[in-house]
Structure formats: structure tokens, C-alpha cells
Amino acid sequence: MINIVIFGAPGAGKGTQATLLAEKYDFLHISTGDLLRQEVSLRTPIGLRAKAIMDRGDLVGDDIVVQLLHRALQQRSTHPDPDSQEDPWDVARKGHSRRPEGCIVDGFPRTVQQAQTLDFVVRRLKRTLDLIVAIDVPRDLLIQRIYERAAVSGRSDDTEEVIRHRLELYDRQTQPVLDYYRLSGRLTTVDGSGEISQTNSRICQVIDQMLAKEH
Ligand code: AMP
Questions:
Q1: How many whole angstroms from 203 Cα to the centroid of ligand 1?
Q2: What is the pLDDT of residues 95-114, one digit of tens each?
Q3: Ligand 1, closest atom to CA 31?
Q4: pTM of the shown model
Q5: 183: burial class by Cβ within 10 Å (0-12, 13-18, 19+)?
Q6: Angstrom distances, CA of residue 211 to CA of 75, 83, 104, 186, 187
């Protein structure tokens, strides 16, 4: 079982690629952005707190995001006991219709603090975070893609001012996460400037190599 983070700036295609990879490899897929949007649409207390923050393009607090990440693993389980000592990764695998080969996370971590938290959680579960795939896309193409997405997404954070702010935050808070992972030797950067299928094949090559080493 391998655990992967898909990393990239807004518009890099993290969500699209993570969805394709989860289908192909039967990975558990966790997107913190999707989890938050679901809370907002259900108007839960977390959703009500998060909405204004997301609409501004700011980062939601770690307490909320980490809580959602944990809950996502537990909800997939056949084991509803939140106090269970059982490894949520194992529990999540049992609740899955077929045995997934791993877990893929997109949208998290977005700060060095979150990256450290993820390492801590993974270590506590006696797992490893095996691979961080950074999708690299030039800035002008990112902006073009976000505008194209804005035309169809209906996302309240896809407006011009908010997009600029999200990219600034990415540069300031999220980009340093790359150095954190580069230093630990787990980072692979993939060219994401082409078609979705081209980027997908590049990422699949990296994952296939890793799976071949595992078996
Ligand atoms: P995304 O769908 O990944 O672009 O996320 C949409 C929005 O959700 C972001 O602009 C943040 O407001 C919030 N969000 C998603 N993931 C995180 C995270 N790991 N930490 C803080 N905020 C997040």
C-alpha cells in the first residue's frame, strides 16, 4: 500500500489527476477542498465557519482541515467506533469494495505546518508517505485554466480578485512545502503543462515504478 500527495498551485489539475489516479489504481481519494465544499453545501457548523474564509480565498484553519481528514478516513470504514485503536488506513481498506493499493490526498498539505502534521499522523499509524507528486504548470497557463474553470465551475472562489489572492497565498504559504519534501527526498515533479492525459501518463509512470518496487 502506498500513500501519495498530489501537490500543485490552484489550476494545476490536482483534483482532476487525483480522481483519475484513484479510479485507475483503486486508491482512496481524499480532497480537502471537496470535503470543505461538501460541509458548506450541507450548511454544517464547520461549513458555516469555512464558507467566508473560502470565498475570500484564504486558508481554512488547521483544526478544521485536520478534523475533516481524520473523519474522511473513519467514514469509509465498516468500523464506526471513533475510539478504536485500529489503524484508520486498515479500517478504510476494509470498508472499500475492492482492496485499494493506497491513498491519494489532494489539497493537503498547504503549509509546512500541515506537512509536519501529516508526517506525524502517518508515523503514528505506522505508515509511510511514499511519494509527493508536484504538478508543475507555468503561471500564465495556471491563470488561463482557472478562468476557463471559473466559466463552468460556479465556484464562489473563482473570481478574479480571489484567484489573485489564492495564487499569492500559494507562493507565500504553500510553495515552501515543496522545499520541505525536497529535503526529505520524497518529491517528484511532473510537467503539467500539456493535456490531462499526458500529465496523467507521466504520473502513472512514477506510481508504476513505485508499485513495482513494493511488490
Ligand atoms: P481546493 O479545492 O483544493 O482549491 O480548495 C478550495 C479552498 O478550500 C481553498 O482555497 C481553501 O480555502 C480551502 N482549503 C482546501 N484545502 C485546504 C487546506 N489543506 N488547508 C486550508 N484550507 C484549505
A1: 22
A2: 544 555 688 999 999 999 99
A3: 3
A4: 0.86
A5: exposed
A6: 26, 32, 14, 15, 16
